[in-house]
Amino acid sequence: MSVDFFSIDCTEKPKTESIFGICDDQNASKAYTDVTNETIWIATVVNQRGTHITFIAIDHCLSIKKEGTDDNESTCDGMLIFRDGLYLVELKNQGTGGWLPKAKSQLENTIRLLQEYHVLDQFRHKKAFACNKRHPYFTVFDVEEKKAFFKKTNGFRLDAQAKIVI
């Protein structure tokens, strides 16, 4: 079975706003963008150059089954596509606890699936963001963990903060 991560069904119209949010209502519906209600934003996208940015929902939009089962693969919430950039985004609204390892795992699995079904050579800038509304500021990963992620994912950089600068 082939999976198209760039499916038109999951793709929003490109945005050029200088700032907008990515939202997840945490109710088994797909993630989406918003330009008006900052209180519902989990991640904030800063786009000072007015770049055309396309958001594509993944979780609760694409159905990707684990091989040989009816269980869904664990994936991140969505991705931002622009010029030569591909940024994956996992959205959380959790207090303390194991949110960061879970987000990292979802990002890694999504990257594995993306690379299984698509060639990503056209993207020079590849990042994976773990965003938590309750912990919006930069969370430090140690150098070795970042290097291991980069190597395991064939070139994706890992970041944990709720502000995504394009």
Strand runs, count:
9
| Largest sheet, spatial ordering of strands | 4-5-6-7-8
**N-to-C terminal Cα separation, in Å?**
33 Å
The overall pLDDT, averaged over residues, is 92
Structural class estimated from helices and strands: alpha/beta
Helical content stands at 10-25%
Q: Which outline best applies?
A: globular
What is the makeup of the main sheet?
A: 5 strands, mixed
Percent of residues in beta strands:
25-35%
- Flag low-confidence runs: none
- Using only C-alpha atoms, the radius of gyration works out to 15 Å
**What is the H/E string?**
EEEEEEHEHEE
Helices, by number, come to 2
Query: How many individual domains?
Result: 1
Short characterization:
The protein has helices spanning 99-117, 143-152; strands spanning 19-23, 32-34, 43-46, 54-57, 78-82, 85-92, 125-132, 157-160, 163-165. The mean pLDDT is 92. The longest helix is centred in the middle third of the chain and has 19 residues, at 99-117.
